[in-house]
Amino acid sequence: MKKITLGFLMIFGCINLGFSQNIALNTSTKTIKEDNWKGLSPLLEVNDILRYIYSDPLKENYIHTIPAGYPLDKDIHINSFYGSRNHPVHQVAKFHRGIDLKGGTGEKVYATGEGEVVEAGYKSDIGNYVKIKHLYGFESIYGHLSKISVKKGQKVSRRQLLGKVGATGTVTGPHLHYTLKKNNQFIDPFDFLFLDFESEGISFMWQQKGKLA
Ligand SMILES: [Zn+2]
Predict the structure, then answer these.
(1) Which of 31, 69, 81, 157 is deepest in the core (most CB within 10 A)?
(2) Ligand 1 centre distance from Cα of residue 96 (Å)
(3) Is Iron set as a keyword in this record (predicted)?
(4) Tell me: the pLDDT tens digits for 59-112?
(5) What is the pLDDT of residues 166-205, one digit of tens each?
């Protein structure tokens, strides 16, 4: 996690003493009052979410909680996108409420943001899975795992190991099913896979693409 610069801390401390009492700026404790960024909570559209995050000079304080980046070690490779499709097993039109990422059995699966494991178990469709609750209404779900390495109630940080890729549940082969929810609604995880809040280069790339114009 990026450290807040001393200069920023000094300015921040001078202009907003009351605010600094509400939040622990020590990145090792990462204590956050969700109220400070409540503007992020109602947002559902990915462009609105990204615009909010990138335009906030204080984003350093909370970006570790936003599910961002790729949950596997490899380069991004998508087997199946979010949205309507013919289900590969059932052969009927079904809305795919997540994104399928290429992966072989046993490959490591990581949390994409800090949060709490609220579910770790088995369902007939997504097999062994882990569900993480983040701040601001975000939830991330990792399905078809061959192994689960975390327990319900456990706090996890970004890039913490959650389990291994597998082929449990209703699948034709091993891959990672990755779902994002915001305020109890499914959202397309695609844009979030490419996010790297700690790299200015990525931010620039988004502006180039016109996403933040
Ligand atoms: Zn899937």
Answers:
(1) 69
(2) 6
(3) no
(4) 888 889 999 999 999 889 999 999 987 777 777 788 899 999 999 999 999 999
(5) 999 999 999 999 999 999 999 999 989 988 776 554 443 4
Which domains does the chain possess? 6-66+195-208 (no CATH), 78-193 (2.70.70.10)
C-alpha 99 to ligand 1 mean position (Å): 5
In the reported structure, the alpha carbon of residue 107 is separated from the centroid of ligand 1 by a whole-number distance in angstroms of 17
Note every long-range contact of 192-201, with CB atoms under 8 Å and residues 24 or more positions apart, other chains counting.
192/46, 192/67, 192/68, 192/69, 192/112, 193/69, 193/70, 193/76, 193/99, 194/76, 195/50, 195/66, 195/68, 195/69, 196/68, 196/69, 197/53, 197/59, 197/63, 197/66, 197/68, 198/1, 198/2, 198/63
**Ligand 1 center to 159 CA (angstroms):** 21
Please tell me the distance between residue 95's alpha carbon and the centre of ligand 1 in angstroms.
10
Q: Which two tokens stand for residue 20?
A: 């600094």
